[in-house]
Amino acid sequence: MPGKRVLVLRPDELGPSEQKMWREIRTESGAPANPFLDPAFTVAVGRVRPGARVAVLQDDGSPVGFFPYEVGALGRGRAVGLGVSDSQGAVLRPGIRPDARRLLRVCGLSSFEFDNLEAGQGVFEPHAVEELASPVVDLGEGFAAYTDHLRARSPGFLRQTLAKERRLARQVGEVRFVYDARDPGALRALMGWKSAQYRRTGRRDRFAQEWITRLVGLLGESEEPECRGVLSVLYAAGRPVAAHLGLRSRTVLSWWFPAYDRAYAKYSPGLVLQLRMLQAAAAEGIGTVDLGSGPARYKESLKTRDLRVYEGAVVRPVPGGAVHWLGREPARAARRFVRGRPRLAGAAARTLEELGRLRGG
To answer: Which stretches make up the BioF2-like acetyltransferase domain (predicted)?
Structure first.
């Protein structure tokens, strides 16, 4: 394996020099500066997930790669922050490509699961079982150039959204937007709206998981320029009606937790917020807004192109690997079957919403 030695550390054992080298290698790779693959994200996850680890690949005593992951029972591994991370994989110096199963063996892992593997991850990509589209908005030429693109591609979408913002101001009250708000009340409202959305659509409530709530709190308070939370809030008549908590680096903003108050749904406050946020992000020097994988009509309207991400797992022929396969692969195969059949996918979504409605009383 390139890198004659592999050190396995807890994230809080990474010193300033290791974090600096991590970022330098990431820059050398030419990959977008996605905040989920910054060391600060792994360090934050390490504070709320005791199984978080980082394998440091060394050659002649110098780091040539970093592999963040989480380890559970029977050595079952997963991407660090799996469930809330939209960009996953290893950070390797160009030309360094260890064998995936051998790397897992050195780390004491029987398997390694990922669901948003970054494109270009040559170590793990051969083990992917599904390729997914991850829409992005390019803002490198400025917001005016983006809106020109939007008018050409979706003229009705832009016109209707701006009209709804004007209607919101007339019928509810003054509309105000804050790109980087320090408003604990708005954050609580966002989490409440999002939890209700999860329950309403029959999906697992992420904010019912303590580690996710704690992670959001840590990153929301972070001052790290390469990985910090940004709470954007749309107010009407002085009260929040839509909000988004994203994660940003200097040049990339990752779309993370958006939600709105359903009492104002006829004004599409979420879309109004998105357009305001894209304008503010462009002014802040953000070149790319990553909307994340997963189908949504608004993403199709807003995007300029798609990135590719991958879902799958590396599995070693050991007992823990067998346990992973039995526990995950049948369900994953079922999801692939449904995704490939739009009518069936629509029926499944409606069923989930009905189950969520029944659970909610």
So the answer is: 159-300
